[in-house]
Amino acid sequence: MNKSLTETPAQSVRNLPSVDAVLKKAQTLVTEYGHDAVTRNIQSLLNSKRESILAGSQSDTDSSDISAEIVKQAQQALAKDSQSTLIPVFNLTGTILHTNLGRSVLPECALEAVVSAAANPVNLEYELETGKRGERDSHFESLVCELTGAEAATAVNNNAAAILLVLNTLALGKEVPVSRGELVEIGGSFRIPEIMARSDCTLVEVGATNRTHLKDYEKAINANTALLMKVHTSNYRIEGFTAEVTDTELAALANKYKVPFVMDMGSGCLVDLAEYGLPAEPTAAQAISAGVDLITFSGDKLLGGPQCGIIAGKKSLIDEIRNNPLKRALRLDKMTLAALEAVLRLYRDPSSLVKKLPAMRQLTRSVDELMAQAESLCHSLQVAVGKAYTVTIEHTHNQIGSGALPVKSIEGVAILVTPASGKDEAVRLIEFAFRSLPTPVIGRIHRGAFWLELRCLESASENNFIGQLDRLEDLPK
Ligand SMILES: *Cc1c(COP(=O)(O)O)cnc(C)c1O
Fold first, then answer.
1. Are 229 and 221 in contact (CB under 8 A)?
2. Distances (CA, A) of 465 to 201, 202, 258
């Protein structure tokens, strides 16, 4: 007999098993996830059960069936909840150093260094020769100096922090002239004018958006000028009728008025990219040799290392920066430091970069190699997406990303998945299906198709990419 015909909702609720009763049947879960988490889950599942019975949307069953059902639901919820929210994805967006996807992937040597630093006590601020307190920056400073020609170097959490620290140290309560063409916003939350305000210095806009001359800077300099600053306009270019003062000219002007010349380089390029067949980007060494007193740049952009902001230049200025209490608040942790040191060491042999540094390896993959990969992947992809879609190959342009070289892109190859129906809805479905895979595949929707850019799909990860394609779900047949 169906009890729901005879039981009132109130009776059914009374017949629900107790938390303790369900808990007794969930001992394996308790072992795996702990008593408190399992109890909380059971409690909340029983509560919703009670509510749905009282709302009349649940026909009751035997209380032992309910226990079993709750244990099963708790198991699913706990398993889901115990997965990390930060997981690997395939970056097939065509933007190599994708800020939202974590920018640079670290090389093997850096991974080993990170693990070793994380797992052990290390001589982070301890001099092994003297047994005295050491300097955190000592682990990478000489490498940065060797690779840039700077006298001294320090590093903080990211380039935004580096700029904040430089301005707060050298320009507190004073004026900083910056060209109107360089008042950039990077990624929405970092704007030069705002970072200046937060660093407690006054921005003095000089020149015009498209043209700034040396005399504009000179007119802006007065007794309250702290330094001259140049910002690499990394995520856009001003084209057409433009004028910009060269680094050498600005360095001479700064020198004449005895103020430091600071340059925010954005991407930390330590080698001449033209030698790798890539569009040229100013290098740190060029800036230092042009007479820039301090440069700042990111560790996880073109440098290909961990997130950090490197400050390099005159020793007297670096010393002042180190003495700012904010440096302590912005300093690097031992794992980042370990990764940074390992990556910088790779630069001692620039010819090894294309093999060992993922950012450089991906940037320099040839179109022939990408095309061969596209051809070998096409069939598996076509099988996986079925007849409702057509898989084709296209030549494309890739972005380096993170603001580097915004105008000059590099050649790429993409696989396009186009719905036979021509419907936007079908494109959104395929994009979602790839994004929902165990290792989500992030591509982009463009001109009625789903584009998978292959530049960052390296052969080592290709097997995992193909292997999971049979798990694409909910595609139109
Ligand atoms: C990227 C960038 C920054 C910010 O660097 P983060 O390392 O992301 O903090 C600042 N300035 C310029 C010119 C940049 O390109």
1. no
2. 50, 51, 57
What does DSSP assign to residue 104? P
Q: What's residue 20's pLDDT?
A: 94
User: Looking at ligand 1, which atom is closest to the CA of residue 299?
Assistant: 7
Confidence check: pLDDT of 1 > 50:
no
CA 95 to chain centre: 12
Nearest CA residue ID for atom 13, ligand 1: 266
Euclidean distance between CA atoms 66 and 178, whole angstroms: 69
Strand (E) or helix (H) holding 185: strand 185-186
User: How far does the centroid of ligand 1 lie from the alpha carbon of residue 358, in Å?
Assistant: 20
Are 281 and 271 spatial neighbours (Cβ–Cβ below 8 Å)? no
DSSP 105: P
Helix (H, G, I), strand (E, B) or coil at 299: coil
Ligand 1 atom with the shortest distance to the CA of 234 = 15
Coil, helix or strand for 468? coil
Q: How far is the CA of 402 from the centre of ligand 1 (A)?
A: 8
Cα–ligand 1 centroid distance for 274 (angstroms): 22
3-state secondary structure of 418: strand
In this structure, the residue with its CA closest to atom 14 of ligand 1 is 266
Name which of 57-71, 123-137, 192-206, 235-249 the model is least confident about.
235-249
Three-class SS state of 259? coil
Question: Average pLDDT of 174-194?
Answer: 80
C-alpha 189 – ligand 1 centre gap (Å): 11
CA-closest residue to ligand 1 atom 5: 159
Mean pLDDT of 364-392: 96
Closest by alpha carbon to 93, among 423, 429, 362?
362
Q: Which of 131, 165, 205, 104 is nearest to 312 (CA)?
A: 165
Nearest to 92 by CA among 385, 416, 340, 467: 416
Residues lining ligand 1, Cβ inside 6 A: 158-160, 186, 190, 231-232, 234, 264, 266, 298, 309, 402-403
CA distance 287 to 251: 10
CA atoms within 13 A on the CB side of 148: 34
- In terms of C-beta density within 10 A (0-12 exposed, 13-18 middle, 19 or more buried), how is residue 256 classed? exposed
Calpha distance 433→469 (Å, rounded): 10
Per-residue model confidence (pLDDT) at position 279: 87
What is the rounded CA–CA span in Å between residue 153 and residue 167? 16
pLDDT of 60 higher than 60: no
